[in-house]
Specification:
Blueprint (H helix, E strand, L loop, with lengths): L4 E9 L2 E6 L2 E7 L1 H10 L5 E5 L4 H17 L4 E4 L5 H10 L3 E4 L1 H5 L2 H10 L4 E10 L4 E6 L4 E6 H10 L4 E6 L11 H8 L6 E4 L5 H10 L4 E4 L1 H4 L5 H10 L6
Parallel strand pairs: 1-4, 1-12, 4-5, 5-6, 6-7, 7-10, 10-11, 11-12
Antiparallel strand pairs: 1-2, 2-3, 7-8, 8-9
Length: 252
């Protein structure tokens, strides 16, 4: 049995970790390398760094964050945000990242996924999907540019296309649930996880330990990701993993 993973996510803006609600109202949450190191020490299985600055100076800042993190962390970590081509991927992997996450750039040019998988291997390629339910279309649709622009891609269709092109993992964020702390979007998570052959990371909405129990019991998600509840000490990773084991979840 493949064991489930717990993944703290660190949204990095100008070298600092920030967190908001539904991608808005950001507030400072600390130094990214210090936070990631703490998560490593308390049993997180991986961490994700997302550069939400996505500017040229942001890229330089993130390379330095990655280099520092690589010198401190024992666990794997993924880096995403503002990655435009395989050269950007190379710089981050060379600095020490284990995996690369692409989102907007992959939607603008899906061949980026293939190019990255061919050059670095599918195991390095994570496709992040920001999903939002559209009542008028009765389905989830993919958004780009930090959740600002709607695309014509239905979420399940895009997830399947990304995997076909070489994605080794899907990082699935519910924009509807992001920062709300009332639970993961279980129907969305299961719809995607049951439609692709690669691991799916559930993201958006975690507020209690029970929410993690639910997402692992009621969907095929391979991992669950959260941010603010970990950053501000509302849930401790080691205590969460102990609770999951007690609830019969096979956790790393």
């Amino acid at each position: 049995m493949i064991k489930k993973r717990i993944i703290p996510c660190l949204d990095v803006k100008d070298g600092r970790v920030v967190k908001g609600v539904s991608f808005l109202n950001l507030r400072d949450a600390g130094d990214p390398v210090e936070l990631a190191t703490q998560y490593d020490q308390v049993g997180a299985d991986e961490v994700v760094f997302l550069d939400i600055s996505a500017s040229q100076e942001g890229r330089g800042t993130m390379v330095e964050v990655v280099r520092q993190a690589a010198g401190q962390l024992r666990i794997p970590f993924t880096v995403g945000g503002g990655i435009r081509d395989t050269e950007d991927m190379y710089q981050l992997l060379r600095a020490g990242a284990d995996k690369i996450s692409v989102n907007t750039a992959a939607l603008l040019d899906p061949s980026l996924i293939e190019d990255g998988a061919r050059r670095f291997g599918s195991q390095c390629m994570v496709v992040a999907i920001d999903a939002c339910w559209m009542d008028d279309r009765d389905d989830w649709f993919v958004f780009t540019h930090g959740g600002q622009k709607k695309t014509d891609w239905r979420v399940v269709d895009w997830a399947q296309e990304a995997v076909r092109r070489g994605a080794g993992e899907i990082l699935l964020t519910s924009m509807d649930q992001d920062g709300q702390k009332n639970g993961f979007d279980l129907p969305l998570t299961q719809a995607v996880a049951s439609s692709v052959r690669v691991p799916v990371i559930a993201s958006g909405g975690a507020g209690t330990m029970e929410h993690f129990v639910e997402v692992f019991h009621e969907t095929s998600a391979a991992a669950a990701l959260a941010a603010s509840i970990f950053h501000y000490g509302e849930i401790k990773v080691n205590e969460l993993k102990a609770t999951l084991r007690e609830e019969g979840v096979a956790i790393r």
